[in-house]
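Example protein as discussed:

>
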Amino acid sequence: MDFNVKKLASDAGIFFTRAIQFTGEKFGQVEKTELDAHFENLLSRADSTKNWTEKIFRQTEVLLQPNPSSRIEEFLYEKLDRTVPSRPNNEELLGHYMQDAAKDFGPGTPYGSTLIKVGDCERRLGSVQREFLQTSAIGFLTPLRNFLEGDWRTISKERRLLENRRLDLDSCKARLKKAKLAESKAAAVPDFQETRPRNYVLSASASAAEHELRLAQTEFDRQAEVTRLLLEGISSTHVNHLRCLHEFVEAQTAYYKQCHLHMQDLQKELDSSNGDVFPNAFAGNPGHSMASGGSSPLDPASAVETDTLKIEEVQAPATGTRKAKVLYDYDAADTSELSLLADELITVYTVPGMDSDWLVGERGNQKGKVPVTYLELLS
């Protein structure tokens, strides 16, 4: 083992000198070299960039992977330089469960066939999400991580070196000031017996301090220039992160667009099959209307079923109408519904065969179905 005692002693001496200088600055007992305003602005901008980049990076990780256990697992695999095992995401798992349930219930039943369609859509949504996560991780998270773990570490290292060079420079200034003060005192009160030897020693000490100061100033200026160049490179970092942010937004836009298209296709597929599914579901119960206390199939009011409701043909009963206060705004989903405004008063009533979650509402000449949960029934 190569153990250099002289180097160890020298390093210990430098550390001790810097500690004395740093402590003196904290107590205001020694002078401190101040950096120029432009340099201070660069330092502040760099710190702000690092802090906000770190927050954005962490929160984006949470957005892309809400499960903290999974994030820890991915982090450990990354540090071990191993590939993260591929697992189904929540959408894919839900789709798989739905399709397995459909096999158990019977794919030919209305519920089973619908489960198959929805499950297939969920699996496609999971595939789209997987692609979005991969694209975002490569195009957005990776550049942010590279800055925090690469560029910022380099900047931090050079800043620490600059601080050490400044402490060395200020220590040299203090030593030179002390040597000059001792030399001036000796010149003011000469000792005629030892004037030459003492003045000679003091002058040599001051010269050595000046030489050390020049070297320290050179080292400080060189390190300041290196650090300044790195700090000015933060502007390029902003430009790079801006480009990555645009790519992240584009990835999000494509992801939500694909999800919307898949859901639209599913909705159309379900709507097209509703005419076959729901009648078949109740085909085995022909007395449904009579058993529920409704009117006879020949009664015109019995035509008011969920799928065949014609609002314009519905007439308000002679008795049984009530006033209701609207609690929340509601936008009608189709022409059979009535849009509502919060706090307005409308007249409501029910008709035979209508879903209990809905009422018929009237406001002037306007009429349509309204959800019960949006109303406060009055007298």
Notes: Confidence is low (pLDDT under 50) at residues 277-307. The helical segments are 5-26, 37-64, 68-79, 90-105, 110-188, 195-232, 234-281, 288-291. DSSP finds eight helices and five strands in the chain.
